[in-house]
Amino acid sequence: MYVFRLYVVGKTPRSARAIESMSRHFETHFKGMYSLEVIDLLKDPGAGDKDLVLATPTAIRVVPTPERRILGDFSDEARVFLGLGLEPG
Question: For the domain bounded by 2-83, which CATH number is listed?
Answer without folding.
Answer: 3.40.30.10
